[in-house]
Amino acid sequence: MNSLIQIKVLIGLVGIFVLMGVANSDIPRLPNGKPDLSGRYNISTRTPYTRPASFGDRAYLTEEEAKAIEEKSRAAKEWGAAKSDPNRSAPKGGNIGAYNDFFFEWGDTAFKIDGKYRTSIIVEPKNGQLPPVTEYGKRRWQTSTKYEWPNERTGSKNGSAWWMETKDEPYNGPESRNLGDRCIMTGVATYAIMSLPYNNVKTIVQTDDHMMLNIEWMHFTRVFRMNDEHRPENIMSLAGDSIGWWEGDTAVIESTNFMMERAQPMSDYRLIEKFTPTEGGLIYYFRVEDPGYEAPYAGEMFWPRSDDYNYEFACHEGNYSMTNILRGARVQEQLP
User: Fold this and answer.
1) Could you tell me which residue, 190 or 95, shows the higher pLDDT?
2) Phi, psi at residue 157, to the nearest 5°?
3) pLDDT for 24
């Protein structure tokens, strides 16, 4: 390599390091020099969690494909905001639909990372799909607290109080309902985090030795202890036991000691999350090691900073639903 080429290479490297220094200097920092990730992030996005099969192993959208998603989103909003016909007939099949579109926040477009639109949030496996479920995973799903139970069973006595015959306990009390019915936590909004139809604001508050992540969906709060050790395995919680450390400007969080509903342990479930500050927000990475799947899986999202506030997740609006679910079951049990 001649001297002129060496000089050009040296100038190029200096330029890169200068740009990195400028970028790093723009990151808000705590007095201890670590990035200050505190703030609010609205993670609503049109980027799908798993990749549509038509994309195969293709990881990125073209600009035209991303524009089409944005146009489709705009059209869906216009359709959802249209006034309903007051003279329309009742919906068929008893399906009355959901909230008005005004209450949803699906996002407007797909997100970019490193200047490219992703075809999915899942990046591992390479096909953007979740790995196959193991036999253990199937059993775990079958034994978990059900969200729905059928209202009728052929040949049941006492009206449709079939649980009196089968000895199931779907309506014994609040504790026999799932966490969603009880307005306690929704797993996919809490760990590993994904974009949902609404209440997508996440709030981070940070000190030298702790990070707090408040989830707008059901107001669940996770606390990460920085530079600490995990608690004993028998001390579990719904969102696990979380410790963290810094790798450069990236906060790495490891969570273990998860439990399912009714204090059932989620054995060997391990979650790694990374929060990396970038222009306009942060990159959120997660990797899940779950014996319920045949292999680990990982994903990545852009979390844009937001001026939006966390809104109330009213859930049952006074929890009347729980009272009425249990009251209805008691009435059915009294029927001849």
Assistant:
1) 190
2) -95, 175
3) 61
Q: How confident is the model at residue 315 (pLDDT cuts 50, 70, 90)?
A: confident
Q: Which residues pair with 244 in a beta bridge?
A: 226, 253
With a CB cutoff of 8 Å and minimum separation 6, the contacts of 32 are: 208
Provide the residue type at 152 as one letter: E
| Closest to 183 measured CA to CA, from 327, 318, 315 | 315
Measured distance CA(60)–CA(286) in Å, rounded? 19
54-99 pLDDT per residue, tens: 999 999 999 999 999 999 999 988 888 888 888 988 777 666 777 7
Q: What angle (nearest 5°) sits at the alpha carbon of residue 86, between those of residues 85 and 89?
A: 80
Helix residue spans in 161-280 (DSSP H): 163-166, 187-190
Question: Which sign does the torsion angle of CA 204, 237, 302, 199 carry?
Answer: negative
DSSP at 13: H
Q: For the chain, what percentages of helix, strand and coil (3-state, to nearest 5) are there?
A: 25, 25, 50
* 252 φ, ψ (degrees, to nearest 5): -105, 125
Phi, psi angles (nearest 5°) of residue 42: -105, 110
Are 324 and 317 in contact by the 8 Å Cβ rule? The answer is no
Q: Which SS3 state, helix, strand or coil, does residue 69 take?
A: helix
CA 53 from centre of chain: 22
Grouping H, G, I as helix, E, B as strand and the rest as coil, residue 83 is coil
pTM, rounded to two decimals: 0.85
